[in-house]
């Protein structure tokens, strides 16, 4: 793995991915999209990773989009294609990232520790839970590329903050600061900069204490039922998840640990 991403395990079962280009405002080069996608794919099939935290190096910028000065090489694009084909091939890979995040069985916590702009807005929106440092700022800089939304932002944003606030944000590019982001539901909460990582780890610790399969099917139910056609459909999906989770040995261990007043030791069986 390159040094574009740092991966550590600050708590057992918690994998933290840190975007590591602070000297370039943590912007992405083309090769970084495939690198992050590969990380997500590896984590998906690692049952011992229970929670993912996505954050960035430094204390000024979370990520300000794509690196326009040094964009890197999109080596998956066929040689000799014109600009429309180049754009279509590149966005196909870039836009896979929020989908991969939502499809992970592990909850993703996004720790926004500075300015987030451009395509990077998809990260806090696609995460299950987002916390922001008080210094964080959310900017729709996608208009600099000619449009106001990409990577599913026009789908994710109104579901987080409502259509009216989403329209203003997408149409005007007005920056949203951390306190407002908390107030409108763009993030769960804004915390002092020095408390951001600990706040994320506290949430992660509470997730890890629950049945692994239970968290997996609960995450599926949460996001898929956002588009359920009826209450009955939502209950049916949840009920199937209940059956699967209750069939695991980990469910028995969770109950046993509860009565014995100790931390559960899951076996992923």
From TrEMBL:
It comes from the Bacteria. InterPro entries: ClpP/crotonase-like_dom_sf, Enoyl-CoA_hydra/iso, Enoyl-CoA_hydra_C. One of its GO terms (molecular function) is catalytic activity. It holds the Pfam family ECH_1. Belongs to the enoyl-CoA hydratase/isomerase family. This is Enoyl-CoA hydratase. It comes from Pseudomonas putida (Arthrobacter siderocapsulatus). The lineage of its organism: Bacteria, Pseudomonadati, Pseudomonadota, Gammaproteobacteria, Pseudomonadales.
């Amino acid at each position: 793995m390159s040094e574009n991403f740092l991966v550590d395990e600050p708590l057992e079962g918690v994998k933290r991915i840190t975007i590591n280009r602070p000297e370039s405002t943590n912007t992405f080069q083309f090769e970084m999209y495939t690198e992050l996608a590969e990380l997500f794919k590896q984590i998906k099939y690692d049952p011992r990773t229970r929670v993912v935290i996505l954050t960035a190096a430094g204390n000024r910028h979370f990520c300000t989009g794509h690196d326009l000065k040094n964009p890197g090489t999109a080596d998956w694009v066929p040689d000799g294609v014109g600009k429309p084909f180049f754009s279509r091939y590149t966005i196909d890979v870039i836009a896979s990232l929020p989908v991969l995040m939502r499809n992970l069985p592990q909850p993703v916590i996004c720790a926004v520790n500075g300015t987030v702009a451009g395509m990077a807005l998809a990260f806090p929106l696609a995460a299950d839970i987002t916390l922001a440092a008080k210094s964080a700022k959310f900017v729709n800089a996608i208009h600099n590329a000619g449009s106001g939304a990409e990577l599913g932002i026009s789908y994710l944003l109104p579901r987080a903050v409502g259509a009216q606030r989403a329209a203003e944000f997408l149409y005007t590019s007005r920056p949203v600061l951390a306190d407002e982001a908390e107030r409108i539901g763009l993030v769960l909460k804004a915390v002092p900069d020095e408390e951001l990582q600990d706040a994320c780890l506290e949430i992660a610790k509470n997730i890890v204490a629950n049945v692994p399969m239970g968290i997996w099917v609960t995450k599926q139910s949460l996001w898929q039922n956002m588009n359920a056609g009826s209450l009955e459909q939502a209950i049916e999906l949840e009920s199937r998840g209940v059956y699967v989770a209750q069939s695991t040995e980990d469910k028995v261990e969770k109950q046993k640990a509860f009565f014995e007043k100790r931390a559960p030791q899951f076996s992923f069986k």
